[in-house]
Design a protein that fits this description.
It is found in: Membrane. One of its GO terms (cellular component) is membrane. InterPro entries: Bact_transf (IPR003362), EPS_sugar_tfrase (IPR017475), Undecaprenyl-P_gluc_Ptfrase (IPR017473). The chain is an alpha/beta fold. It has three domains: about 130 residues, no CATH class; about 90 residues, NAD(P)-binding Rossmann-like Domain (Rossmann fold), CATH 3.40.50.720; about 200 residues, no CATH class. It is built from 15 helices and eleven strands. The strands form four sheets. The chain has a five-stranded parallel beta sheet with strand order 3-2-1-4-5, sandwiched between helices. β10, α12 and β11 form a beta-alpha-beta unit. α1 crosses α2, α1 runs antiparallel to α4 and α8 crosses α11. The protein is flat.
Length: about 475
């Protein structure tokens, strides 16, 4: 079997140092060319500080973890976080300790751009290179699977179907042989020590959900005596998502099968601060627009300017949502008390209402919901009570979207999931996108959604009616 040592941490850090050095030299030449200066002195201490800062922040932000079994998006996010912190520290250093440094703002801007391009190129190149190497049988970790049941077989099939993970199964150990193992059954648990001694194995994977505490302890002790790492597949693996996490409560490892960045208080506070600042800015800047819309609604149809509707928000609690009224009064329910959702070309929508709905301007009063704390600017859209009760009953994972505050706009909305949604698969897609946003929240994702919302408002959304 072909095996070589995995790329060591030191080598990955040295490649990053090389990228930083090249980016620094390119930035130096670019700044000289832009300012038409023949030569600026090359400040080596700044380069050294940059390299030390990058490596230190990279280690702190998990840039150098083993990403072999994860998509590139994980490494990309670690790279972005490292770059942002690196830029902040470097900017502070230049302005406070190198006050005579030439054009610090221009330098940091260009330097950051070169670093981003260089790091992206190097990380993608290395990932593709080692993918090819692993597919040829090199740089592969050998694993031994303890168990031969359903869990063990599913785990084996997963690594067999994903060569880029870089794992190869040496065989299975279980007290009960499984004839479906195609000759990979190596023996019972009592022979584990002998099997570990006679095979080249990197990791032992425990996949016996029904094993007793004594069996588990014996497997761990035997494996560690043979200097092998032990990984345990949790019994709840079928319910776990890509955001599964584990924490310690005393000496008890507790698995959270579905986690979100918004579980952390710091992210919640930052998102709330962004909501308040952005909402106050929008209210001040577009106060004239609120007044204009209110006047147009009042002079073109009878009824109040603001429409209030019961919806459901954080922790499945009711909230009163505010909108500019876009429909004739008392037409939300029919004579039998059945809710009537808005349809395309709905005759109940007023002339002004059609424009407000198409441009999403009818949602502007929800800024007051944000200030009250009922909603966030970006989040899953809250649904009216009849829809909420129906979706709660029929759509898988629907209630998970109520783990965070609802939003004025959201990931599903900017991706075209609006309108009637009369099929189960359409609603399921919306809920999937809402839950994806919750599990992948970041400030930059919120900025992207805000930008896409503005673009949709300017060009008009065909699904908004």
């Amino acid at each position: 079997m072909k095996t070589i040592v995995n790329v060591p941490l030191l080598l990955r850090q040295l490649i990053d140092c090389l990228v930083l050095t090249i980016a620094y030299l390119l930035t130096h030449q670019t700044v000289c060319a832009l300012q038409q200066v023949l030569h600026y002195p090359l400040n080596i201490p700044v380069l050294c500080i940059s390299i030390i800062t990058w490596v230190a922040t990279g280690v702190h932000l998990h840039l150098y973890e083993d990403f072999r079994s994860r998509p590139f998006s994980y490494e990309f996010m670690a790279l972005i976080k490292t770059l942002l912190l690196h830029v902040c520290i470097l900017t502070f250093t230049l302005f406070y300790f190198f006050k005579m440094f030439y054009s610090p703002r221009l330098f940091v801007g260009i330097y950051s751009g070169y670093i981003f391009i260089g790091m992206m190129f190097s990380k993608i190149l290395i990932k593709k290179l080692f993918l090819r190497i692993r597919m040829k049988g090199y740089n592969v970790k050998n694993i031994l699977i303890i168990g031969a049941g359903e869990t063990a077989i599913h785990f084996h099939n997963t690594i067999a179907a994903n060569d880029h993970f870089g794992y190869q199964c040496i065989g299975f150990v279980d007290n009960e042989p499984n004839h479906a193992l195609n000759g990979k059954y190596l023996g019972p648990l009592s022979a584990l020590g002998h099997i570990l001694e006679n095979h080249e194995i990197d990791d032992v994977v425990l996949a016996i959900p029904e094993s007793s505490r004594e069996e588990t302890e014996n497997i761990i002790v035997t494996s560690e005596k043979a200097a092998k790492r032990v990984k345990i597949i949790a019994n709840c693996y079928k319910h776990c998502t890509s955001t599964v996490s584990m924490s310690l409560f005393g000496h008890f490892p507790v698995i959270t099968i579905r986690s979100s960045p918004l579980d952390h208080t710091g992210n919640q506070q930052f998102k709330r601060l962004f909501d308040i600042c952005f909402t106050v800015f929008m209210l001040i800047t577009f106060s004239w627009l609120f007044l204009l819309i209110a006047i147009l609604i009042k002079i073109t149809s009878r009824g109040p300017v603001i429409y209030k509707q019961e919806r459901w928000g954080l922790k499945n609690k009711k909230l009163t949502l505010y909108k500019f009224r876009t429909m004739e009064m008392n037409t939300e329910y029919d004579s039998n008390g059945v809710f009537r959702p808005t349809l395309r070309n709905d005759p109940r929508v007023t002339v002004v209402g059609k424009f407000l709905r198409r441009t999403n301007l009818d949602e502007l009063p929800q800024f007051f919901n944000v200030l009250k704390g009922d909603m966030s600017f970006v989040g899953p859209r809250p649904y009216v009570t009849p829809h909420h009760l129906e979706l709660k009953r029929t759509i898988q994972h629907y209630m998970l979207r109520h783990l965070v505050k609802p939003g004025i706009t959201g990931w599903a909305q900017v991706n075209g999931c609006r309108g009637e949604g009369d099929r189960i698969d359409q609603w399921q897609k919306r809920i999937y996108m809402d839950n994806w946003y919750i599990e992948n929240y970041s400030f930059w994702l919120d900025c992207q959604i805000v930008f896409q919302t503005i673009v949709n408002m300017l060009k008009g959304d065909k699904n908004a009616y």
